[in-house]
Write a structure and sequence with these properties.
36% helix; eight-stranded mixed sheet; globular; 19% strand; single chain
């Protein structure tokens, strides 16, 4: 059995005065089972199922990973993917402006952007997820709306905004999946926010990083930047009170900043991290 992916174009984001495509995965048997399902909200939806219209042209194949888990007894879940906004992605996926970006990013590739304007709209995007999108999904689909059955996840900047969303709205999200978080974007702002919000014992946070990840091949130190910024964010979470039963951080030797590795890590992050 295979699931269904529904595409909803031009879904309005009133908090940002723009529209975006949604890609909603319904598990096999959804139409006939009559049972409610947990929901995972994911960013960069162009990349999470398949096709060639994502940032790197590679998919996570999240739906295939979930169906493989279902064949092993996993109950399945609905995945609500929200397309990124292209060059708006940086602004929407961080509540705070980026820091020192010209020294970190490929200036040639990013030449059309104003570096001092990247970031800062993330809380509006989080409000959209919680106050507009989730009520829409819960009204129209057979979901389990409680926070304990509501997940948020993504990679890179998608991981960054997922952690911010979980910290900001623990009343909505009970589980955070942060793959290869781009904490270099503004590490200090994220750590300050963690200290401000403190720990929520009802939330689980999964974090991971590969040792060969980069967002600028001209910076040979970028893999170390990825690992160390992730490690320091993890340590900040531990320091405010998240214990090993609620927070996991894994480092994967040799993994690069690539969907094929996020696909490899997805199933275990979802099902094994907090057993």
């Amino acid at each position: 059995m295979i699931g269904t992916i529904l595409v909803i174009d031009d879904f309005t984001i009133p908090q940002l005065d723009r529209k975006r495509t949604l890609r909603i995965y319904l598990p096999p048997g959804y139409e006939t089972s009559g049972k409610p399902y947990p929901v995972l909200y994911m960013h960069d939806a162009q990349n999470i199922y398949g096709g060639k219209n994502g940032l790197g042209g590679n998919p996570w194949n999240v739906h295939l990973e979930l169906e493989a888990l279902m064949r092993q007894g996993f109950e399945g879940m609905i995945v609500v993917g929200i397309d990124n906004g292209g060059m708006e992605r940086f602004s929407e996926y961080s509540p705070w402006p980026g820091k020192d970006l010209e020294s970190l990013l490929d200036v040639g590739r990013m030449s059309s952007l104003h570096f001092d304007q990247l970031g800062g709209r993330g809380f509006r995007y989080i409000d959209f997820l919680c106050d507009t999108l989730k009520p829409y999904i819960d009204e129209r689909f057979n979901t389990r709306p409680d926070k304990n059955d509501t997940w948020i996840g993504g990679s890179s900047m998608g991981g960054y905004i997922s952690l911010a969303a979980g910290l900001s709205r623990p009343d909505v999200f009970g589980h955070v999946l942060c793959f290869s978080g781009a904490f270099w974007f503004n590490e200090e702002a994220m750590k300050s926010y963690i200290v401000h919000r403190g720990a929520d014992e009802s939330m689980t946070i999964y974090m991971d990083i590969g040792t060969n990840e980069t967002s600028n091949a001209d910076r040979p130190d970028f893999p170390a930047i990825y690992v160390e910024t992730n490690r320091r964010v993890y340590e900040t979470l531990r320091n405010v009170g998240f214990d090993e039963n609620h927070l996991k951080f894994l480092v994967f030797e040799g993994h690069t900043h690539d969907e094929k590795y996020w696909q490899m890590r997805f199933a275990s992050a979802l099902t094994e991290s907090f057993q």
